[in-house]
Amino acid sequence: MLARLIDGALGLLVLYLVFRLVPGSRVLGRLVLGLGALTTYEALFVLQLRATPGKLATSLRVAELDRARMDPVTGWTRAVVTSVGTLALIISPAALGVMTTSGPGLVLGAVVVGIAGGYVLSIITAPLRRGVADRIAGTIVVPFDAPEVVDRAAVDDGTDAQRPRPLTAWGRVGTNEARRRARAARLDDSPVLVVGLVAVLLAWTVDYVALAIGLACVWVALLVVDEAWRVARHGGTAGHRREGLAVVDEQTGEAPAIGPAFARALVLAVFWLFPPLLPVLWIWMQLSTTGRGPHDLVAGTVVVESTRAGSRGGA
Predict the structure, then answer these.
(1) What pTM does this model have?
(2) Is 68 within a domain?
(3) Do 209 and 115 lie in a common domain?
């Protein structure tokens, strides 16, 4: 945390220099350039020196699991996620101010504060203090004198030791990390949903707010139906199968019926529709002793490791 505070102070200096170059009326331009500057700062230091100035000052470094040297894609991926969280933290005071000005201001401010809070909580509550950036990129922050290659299996064992996963009659509950990767791969075999999401983003980009909101509602409805159908028919999405996971009925161990599967997808949709609620879901999953989120509790399901779900890399 001390390292992040030092880097946050330097990040403020970077943003100050960027904001001096962009007129105050161009808020979006300032944010985009600021994010780019913070990402470049983070990525170049980590890729070249294996640590940011804050980590160097506290004798820490960033290591990619199972690799002696970090891959550039890994470094930039981690930098983007870290910079989004850092920027959200820095502008949170301003975001709180705009929340009382209008409806859109309330939504925008809530999203920014939610991202900032989720970023901090992901570090504080995670085993081995691997925040969301490290888990997405497959990295870990270690002392400089740690082994050159940090073994992924050892990290997984350390995670399980700090937070043992429950064992059900149908298998061990899947890790939050595996479930996150499965959710990230949710659209892998859903081209219609991908096209719909692109349409929503385009409508939002060209400032057709009403159209964007309408398309977003249609997209979420399609996502709920698609999610429910896949869970009921296959016991999970393509992401679940790739990660060796299965969504099963807690009583029978089989794929849930369409009714519970639909209820499960509907509860998830509430969090998708209201991004400020995502940190609540994140905290719930981190603190749950059963490995079940509100969507699983409503549907009577549990996500377990299962050879029936297929191996990673194939369905």
Answers:
(1) 0.64
(2) yes
(3) no
